[in-house]
Amino acid sequence: MENEITIIEGPPPTFETVDDGWALGLNEAPFLYDLALTHLRTFNGAELVERCHRTWSQQNTMFLHYRNDLGLDEQAPIMAVRSVETNEGQVLFLWIRLKPEDEEEDEDDNQEDEGLE
Question: What is the mean pLDDT of residues 46-65?
């Protein structure tokens, strides 16, 4: 598909928390989201960047499509992209938007579990 970058092999991507001031500006939305950075090896970084730009110029959303740790399909909106040439080949940096995990729910579950012992 033209509006997604798909990871077809390898482990699920790792996501790093974004603390850069310019990247936090990408989070302007009616809902709070977590911004994360992931990097992927690729053979066609410039083409993937161009695909993102074409999709965004048409006012559409570009997605990263991948399988999570359980093997289930996941999608995350791509907010920014950059391709870098390294000694080991091309690397694609993707800044994506993730829904925040509900930490309060996890804390409540832990408290209930402790009460059962």
Answer: 95
